[in-house]
Specification:
Blueprint: H1 8-13, E1 44-48, E2 52-53, H2 65-78, E3 84-89, E4 92-97, H3 99-107, E5 112-117, H4 122-134, H5 141-154, H6 159-166, H7 170-178, H8 184-191, H9 197-201, H10 208-218, H11 225-236, H12 251-264, E6 268-272, E7 277-281, H13 286-308
Parallel strand pairs: 2-4, 3-5
Antiparallel strand pairs: 1-5, 3-4, 6-7
Helix pairs in contact: 2-3, 4-5, 5-7, 6-7
Length: 309
């Protein structure tokens, strides 16, 4: 299983000399809501909540009120266990890590909060904010997908590099990004919490104009992910009406078509049998065609490289 801890890139951005610092004695095992990277050399001071502003680059747009209230109760009893990280902006401070603690402290009626002041460039602020949020489990699937896309686009990262930075596997990053290829209506259902990311990913291979109709059937836990996968397969490969003249396709050919659909993330169909026929790969936009073309070119390059070896 992929390590969901902090990636090496995040540690270096936050001013830690080595990833092994994460296990140093200065670090404490605390509740996830109060976790911050702390260097043994950091000086913690108390800053008035009135002098602190939220991060305008914060990827998380929605904060669960009940969870914030629970954290506020914990802060009333135990205080803020781990300091937040801020950077000076003029005469004020902007949050780099720990906005939940900041919000909960306000709810708890606190006047100030322990904080570590660090100087960052605007580019570092944005990158750190994205990565810090992506390493939390409570970021919504769409918020996470958009944050990863921003990280890759603005900092010229590949999926592999982005995955390393946030401490997740490349496949997990790829699966999250696939959610952004869905239609806006389906994305809306995910944001509303009516459709899980697992259910939504089964619809990636469905033409965008047909996705919402299928998504509604799987909303609100009306079916399991496995049941939805079956529904999508039946939609893409409807059973033909019984016809004596119809050509029966082998299990191997049917399996090949299914594998190609998953690989190309689009509709694939076959006419004929195991001896003779045609395979069709559908694309619906120019981006679809470019993506399929790039996959084929990469595969051909790998084959040529193997032949040369």
């Amino acid at each position: 299983m992929a390590n969901k801890g902090l990636g090496r890139g995040f540690a270096s951005l936050m001013g830690m000399n080595d990833i092994d610092d994460l296990t140093a004695p200065a670090m404490k095992s605390v509740d996830e809501d109060q976790k911050t990277i702390v260097n043994s050399d950091d000086n913690v001071i108390k800053i008035s909540l009135l002098d602190i502003d939220p991060n305008y680059e914060q990827p998380r747009k929605n904060f669960d009120e009940s969870a914030l209230n629970e954290l506020a109760e914990s802060i009333k009893m135990h205080g803020v266990i781990q300091p937040i990280v801020v950077t000076p902006i003029g005469k004020r401070f902007m949050i780099i890590a720990g906005e939940r603690r900041f919000r909960a402290s306000k709810i708890a009626g606190k006047a100030d909060i322990p904080a570590i002041i660090r100087n960052y460039t605007p580019q570092q602020i944005k990158e750190i904010s994205l990565i810090e949020n992506l390493q939390r489990e409570d970021l919504s699937p769409i918020e996470a997908a958009r944050a990863i896309r921003t990280l890759m686009t603005e900092f010229n990262m590949t999926q592999e590099v982005a995955a390393d930075r946030i401490g997740k596997s490349r496949s997990a990053v790829a699966n999250t990004l696939r959610l952004l290829t869905l239609s806006d209506d389906v994305i809306g259902l995910i944001e509303q919490g009516r459709l899980s990311a697992g259910h939504a990913r089964t619809l990636v291979v469905v033409p965008r104009e047909r996705q919402y109709k299928l998504a509604i059937k799987g909303c609100d836990n009306q079916m399991t992910v496995r049941e939805m996968e079956k529904m999508v397969r039946e939609f893409l490969n409807p059973k033909p009406q019984k016809d004596k003249a119809a050509v029966e396709q082998s299990k191997e050919l049917v399996s090949l078509v299914g594998n190609m659909q998953r690989a190309f993330a689009t509709k694939v169909s076959a006419l004929g049998n195991g001896n003779k026929g045609r395979i069709y790969i559908d694309y619906y936009t120019a981006d679809d065609l470019d993506r399929i073309s790039a996959m084929v070119e990469n595969w051909m390059s790998d084959q040529f490289r193997k032949d040369e070896e």
